[in-house]
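Deviation from plan, reported transparently: adenosine-5'-triphosphate complex.
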Amino acid sequence: MAENIDTAETQNERVGRHERFRGDYPIVVEGLVNRFGDQTIHDGLDLKVRRGEILGVVGGSGTGKSVLMRSIIGLQMPTEGSIEVFGRSITDADPDEALGIRDRWGVLFQGGALFSTLTVGENVEVPLKQFYPNLSPELMHDIARYKVLLSGLPEEAVNKYPSELSGGMKKRAGLARALSLDPELLFLDEPTAGLDPIGAAAFDQLTLQLKKALGLTVFLITHDLDSLHEICDRVAVLADKKVIAVDTVPNLMELDHEWIQEYFNGPRGRAALTAQALDELRQHMDQPIAAQTIKALDNPRPKKDKT
Ligand SMILES: Nc1ncnc2c1ncn2[C@@H]1O[C@H](COP(=O)(O)OP(=O)(O)OP(=O)(O)O)[C@@H](O)[C@H]1O
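Because the crystal trials were delayed, the predicted structure below was used instead.
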């Protein structure tokens, strides 16, 4: 009988597990090494993600952005190094301890990774069934419906199968599933890839709104320069098997590194910057704007004198 008594201790453990993380860095990666055979992907990679930020993660194809994300969420055991999420070690955790953290993040994988034989609502219910099997079916349906609406899908999408959705809707359905457990951390792997510019911009704005409304910390892998300019607080650049810089986009643009210069100051980078600046100007159109300011947008920023 004694084992059925809900002691203060067990209650405290439960409360503790659901308390939100209050530290500065929900993700801390130190000295990460990932090797596949004789291929070294990461070699001494360090990264700290700040609570409440949208951190963009960029790097050339194959630099290990997805492997980094998989390492952080415990799907890829690193060769060396330590990873802490919410102050708890992912690399040393026993399976039970890891489970205590896993229900506090949501992941939108590349392509959505929805179960094709389940409806959108059933997809959203998958994590609920895994982590809260005692919830009533009615409550699960209600939560799924709410998450679908929160992700900007119409209510009728709940009963649709992934094959009946457009690319943008599939991403939103994947997002609804990532939000099913009210996560503190959201991992998005190239969420705007394959979307048209309007769909991509709408998804960016949704991400920003959700971050603000739900107090999320967002780890956003992207190649989308517009997303970096529009919604990222900081951007981490992967190159040379490490994170070579983490900063705001304007600060990164000042760095003297070949890949960073090509990426942010190349034609596409400049176009994204101009678009964002014009967007901001449009929001202040009722105030007088110096013609000079607009002219400056079309001219590259003068480089800082490094001497
Ligand atoms: N399980 C694995 N076994 C062997 N090699 C792997 C494994 N997972 C990833 N790799 C390799 O690690 C490298 C980095 O892959 P990753 O998917 O993280 O790159 P990425 O930076 O996300 O690239 P992209 O921008 O093209 O999506 C690639 O060369 C990939 O082939």
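Residues 197-214 form the longest helix (18 residues). We consider this an acceptable substitute for the interim report.
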